[in-house]
Amino acid sequence: EHRGEKMLLDFGQTDRFIVNARELGIDIESIKTAVLSHGHYDHADGLRFIKGKKLVCHPDCFVKRYSKETGRYDGVGISLEELSQNNEVILTKEPYEIAEGIFFLGQVPRVNDFECKQFPTVLENSEKDELFDDSALAVKTENGVVVIAGCAHSGICNIIEYAKNVTG
User: Fold this and answer.
1) Where are the extended beta strands (E) located within the chain?
2) What's CA 102's distance to the chain center, in Å?
3) Distance (Å, rounded) from C-alpha 107 to C-alpha 142?
4) Residue 2 DSSP class
5) Rounded distance, CA 13 to CA 48, Å?
6) β-strand 54-57 against 88-91: which pairing, if any?
7) Which residues contact 71 (CB under 8 A, 6 or more apart)?
8) Over the Cα atoms of the chain, what is R_g?
9) 3-state class of 73 per DSSP?
10) Could you give the C-alpha distances from 95 to 55, 130, 143, 168, in angstroms and in order?
11) How far apart are CA 80 and CA 36, in angstroms?
C-alpha cells in the first residue's frame, strides 16, 4: 500500500493469501491491481482465485517450465486465456508505472557477473530457463526507493540498480 494505492504481489499456491488477508482485516475485493513477480507455481497458483483485477506481469510468466530436480511441472497452473476471461492482463517486458510512483520493473537487465548463474527450472524443450520473467516492484517514497521482490532470480543487485534507473 502506497499513497492510498493497494496491490497484491504474488499469490502462493492456494487461496491462503485470501484467508490471511481476511484475518488481517484486508478486503481483497477492494484491491484492484495484482502483480506476478515470476512464473513459478509457488508464487502463481493462487491466481486462479483472482477475479476483476488488473494483473501486471512479464509475458514469459506463462512459458512451460519444469523442475531440474524432480522433473515436475513448476510453471503457472492457470493459462493466460483463463486469467484474461476475468481480469485485465497487462503483459510487459518494459517498466510499467502501475500508479504514481509505483513501478513494475519488467525484464531486469542482468548486468553483473556474480548473480543469475543457477536456475531451478528448465523449459518445456529442456533448454535452460534463465527466468527472464523475474521482476519486482519499485516504489518511490519520501525516504527513497523501496524495492519489493519475489525470489529475485534476476539478482537482487541487478534489480536494485535497475529500480534506481527506472525511478530516476
Assistant:
1) 7-9, 33-35, 54-57, 65-67, 88-91, 96-99, 102-104, 121-123, 136-141, 144-149
2) 14
3) 26
4) B
5) 9
6) parallel
7) none
8) 16
9) strand
10) 14, 19, 22, 12
11) 12
Q: If DSSP codes are grouped into helix, strand and coil, which group holds residue 36? A: coil
Question: Could you give the CA distance from residue 47 to residue 78 in angstroms, rounded to a whole number?
Answer: 7
- 47-97 confidence digits (pLDDT tens): 999 999 999 999 999 999 999 999 999 999 999 999 999 999 999 999 999
Three-state SS at 161: helix
Query: Starting from the edge strand earliest in sequence, which strands make up the sheet with 102-104, in order?
Result: 96-99, 102-104, 136-141, 144-149
In terms of residues, how long is the chain? Answer: 168
- Say how far apart CA 70 and CA 150 lie, in whole Å: 22
Q: What angle do CA 10, 77, 146 make, to 5 degrees?
A: 15
Residue with cell 490471511: 20
Each residue's pLDDT tens digit, 83-127: 999 999 999 999 999 999 999 999 999 999 899 888 999 999 999
Q: Is the pTM of this model over 0.85?
A: yes
The Cα 78–Cα 34 span in angstroms is 15
Side chain identity, residue 92? T
